[in-house]
Amino acid sequence: MNEDILKQCEDMIAKGSSSFYQAFQGLPSPRREAVYVIYAFCRMIDDSVDEPDESPYSIYELRHYFSNLDDAKGHFIWPALRWLFASFPQLDPGPFLRQMEGQLTDLVQTSYNTMAELEHYCYLVAGTVGEMLLPVLRNESNADVVASGIALGKGMQIVNIIRDVGEDSRRGRRYIPLELMVRHGYTEHALLHGEVNTSFISMIHELKQTAMIWFEKGLENVHSYPPSSGLAVELAAAFYGSILEAVEENHYDVFSRRAIVNDERKRSMYRNIATKYARVGVTEGVL
Fold first, then answer.
1. Residue 285 falls inside a structural domain
2. What is the 3-state secondary structure of 131-153?
3. Taking a C-beta distance cutoff of 8 angstroms, is the pair 255, 166 a contact?
4. What is the pTM of this model?
5. Which of 91, 236, 251, 284 could form a disulfide with 23 if both were Cys (CB 3.0 to 4.6 A apart)?
6. Is Transferase among this UniProt entry's keywords (predicted)?
7. What is the mean pLDDT of residues 153-173?
8. Helix 59-67 vs helix 31-50: angle between axes, to the nearest 10 degrees?
C-alpha cells in the first residue's frame, strides 16, 4: 500500500478530530491506519452533505463509487478503502452503506419528533461507525460486543447533537426531539433565538443522561478487547464525554460558544486511563 495514501487519511483525522486522532494513534499497525481510513471516508460522507460545495463528491457519487470499489478512481480514498477491506476481510460493507443512508436523511429530514426517531438516526450515522471499527480493533466479536460498539457510537452522536445545537439550528436542523422539548417546556421559538433558560438546561440534562447510558453500555465489553484497542476505546469515550463537561462550564451556551476539550485535560484523562493498561505496555506513543 502506498504510504502517501494512508498519510492523507491520517492528515484528515488529525485535522478533523483531534480527540479521535489522539485516542487511536497508539494502536499498532495496521489497526491504526485502518481507523484513519474509516475516519477519512466517514468524514467525506459527512462533508458531502454538510459542506457540498467543498466536497469532491456528492453523497450519491460516494455511494456509487463505494458500491463499485474495485473500479473507483480519482481520489486517494478509493485505494485506501481497497487496502482496508483486503487487510481486514471480516469487514462488512453494510455499515458503510447504512452510514451513507443516515447522512442522506439529513437532506430530507430536518427535525425529529420522538426519541425513537432520533435513536434510529444516531444508529445510522454513528452506531454504524462502531460496527465498522470492531473488526479493526479486535479479531472476533459477538452480539453483545457489537451492541456495545453501536451504543458507544450512539452516545457520541448525542454529544455531537448537544454540542452543535446552535450550529444545527442555523442550518435549519433540529435534532432535539419535539417530545423532549414539550416535556421540558422549551419552545421552538426559544431554540431559534438561542435562549438558554432552566427549561433548556433540564432538556440538555435529559439528553446527557441518555448519552451516559449509552456510554456505559458501550464500555461494558472493553475488557475483552486487545489492551491497545481497549485503551483507545476508553480514551475516545472519555475525550468525547468530557465535551459535556465543557458544555456545562460554558453555562450551556451552545449557541455562541463551542465546547472544546483542551489538550491539558486530555492528558489528565489519558494518565488516569492509562494506569490500568501500563502493565501490558500499551501506553507508549499516545499524547
1. no
2. HHHHHHHCCCCCHHHHHHHHHHH
3. yes
4. 0.94
5. 236
6. yes
7. 97
8. 140
Q: Quote the number of domains for the chain.
A: 1
Residue 230 domain flag: yes
Is residue 286 situated within a structural domain? no
CA distance 142 to 200: 39
Give the amino acid at 151: A
For 42-77, the pLDDT digits (tens) are 999 999 999 999 999 999 999 999 999 999 999 999
The identity of residue 241, as a single letter, is G
173 within 8 A of 111, measured Cβ to Cβ:
yes
Distance CA 137, CA 91 (A): 11
Q: Which range marks the domain in which residue 40 is found?
A: 3-280
List the CATH number of the domain containing 112: 1.10.600.10
Burial 9-41 (b: 16+ CB within 10 A, else e): bbebbeeebebbbbbbbbbeebbbbbbbbbbbb
Show the CA angle centred on residue 122, arms to residues 116 and 123, nearest 5°. Answer: 90
Q: Is residue 217 part of a domain?
A: yes
Q: Residue 50, exposed/middle/buried by CB under 10 A (0-12, 13-18, 19+)?
A: middle
Amino acid at 275: T
What average pLDDT does range 152-168 have in this prediction? 97
**Residue indicated by cell numbers 485535522:** 15
Region 209-228: what's the mean pLDDT?
96
In the block, cell 492528558 appears at 267
Give the model's pLDDT for residue 282: 56
d(CA 125, CA 26): 25
User: Contact, 190 vs 199, CB < 8 A?
Assistant: yes
Looking at every residue in the chain, the average pLDDT score rounds to: 94
Tens digits of per-residue pLDDT, 87-105?
Answer: 999 999 999 999 999 999 9
Q: How far is CA 276 from the centre of its chain?
A: 25
